[in-house]
Amino acid sequence: MVTELKATRQLSGVILSGLGFCTIYPHLTLYFGLHHFCALLLKICRLKSSVSFLTRPDRPNIAYQKLKGRNPGVIFLPGFNSNMNGQKATALEDFCKSLGHAFIRFDYTGCGSSDGKFEECTIGKWRKDVLSILDELTDGPQILVGSSMGGWLMLHAAIARPDKVAALVGVAVAADHVVTTFKRLPIEAQKEIEEKGEWKYQTKQNEEGYYSLTYDFIREAENHCVLNSPIPVTCPIRLIHGMKDGDVPWEISMQVADRVLSKDVDVILRKIGQHRMSDKEDTKLLVNTVDDLIDKLSTVA
């Protein structure tokens, strides 16, 4: 069941607040430039409006934004502890809108605007979120774009829904990464984490410098590893990875390319690319990659 969130009152408040800012601080408005202010205001308005919720009887509601259009549709899968409002997601939405293609971005359970507690989530639960989006909100072939952990989940979705997943685009795919990183720790360190029930996983993606993961999260994630055997995915796959990625080694994308059964696989390495791959040229590469796949699938159809 889909429930739409009405945000007209919130949106009006944002606009009025923005106009009030211009009135009170005209010198700042002129300093930063009116066009920059308008762009920021439009971005805020977009985040506040058109949010809907996929309601599920046995699971938390999932927040999403859907753009109607023709197929193949595009679905963006965020990374760990991320939400649907990142630069890659919004850039893809703008691109799909310009072409008239369907697009969906969403928040995993416990993340962003979705219901649920983040500390109770697992890879398995987030996998079910992706399948719920595919099953309930889409009709026809879809291109999945997965960032980091989202790249891991897109592989699971392609395995579970081969008739719907027409192509994959991975950005800094983190398949199995949390599990393999844990298993590379000294045995003493692994035992200490098991006893404490918590692992402070080092990362450059937040101010703290680490993600706090439960031992149960790690153990559950082991059930979803894909790199230990051939991956039964045969659709076209494009894998983009930055060679300066300090969180997820680019070699993982090479492993995925080697493991999938698909023959139509390209790995694109950006020599100066970081983990988020959100620079202007990185985003342009991502959009062009999706554009090429849309053309390819449309020609085949």
Automatic annotation (TrEMBL):
The domain of life is Eukaryota
Chief site of localization: mitochondrion
EC assignment: 3.1.1.93, 3.1.2.22
Show the InterPro entries listed in the entry: AB_hydrolase_1 (IPR000073), AB_hydrolase_fold (IPR029058), ABHD10_acyl-thioesterase (IPR052382)
User: Where in the numbering of this chain does the AB hydrolase-1 domain appear?
Assistant: 74-173
Output the Gene Ontology cellular-component terms.
mitochondrion
Record field: catalytic activity: mycophenolic acid O-acyl-beta-D-glucuronide + H2O = mycophenolate + D-glucuronate + H(+); S-hexadecanoyl-L-cysteinyl-[protein] + H2O = L-cysteinyl-[protein] + hexadecanoate + H(+)
A GO MF annotation of the entry reads:
hydrolase activity, hydrolyzing O-glycosyl compounds
Q: Where are the transmembrane segments?
A: 12-34
UniProt entry keywords in alphabetical sequence: Hydrolase, Membrane, Mitochondrion, Transit peptide, Transmembrane, Transmembrane helix
Spell out the subcellular localization from the entry. Mitochondrion
The enzyme's first-digit EC class, named in words, is: hydrolase
Family the entry assigns: Belongs to the AB hydrolase superfamily.
Function of this protein? Acts as an acyl-protein thioesterase that hydrolyzes fatty acids from acylated residues in proteins. Regulates the mitochondrial S-depalmitoylation of the nucleophilic active site residue of peroxiredoxin-5/PRDX5, a key antioxidant protein, therefore modulating mitochondrial antioxidant ability. Also catalyzes the deglucuronidation of mycophenolic acid acyl-glucuronide, an active metabolite of the immunosuppressant drug mycophenolate.
What's the protein here called? Palmitoyl-protein thioesterase ABHD10, mitochondrial
Q: Which organism is it from?
A: Junco hyemalis (Dark-eyed junco)
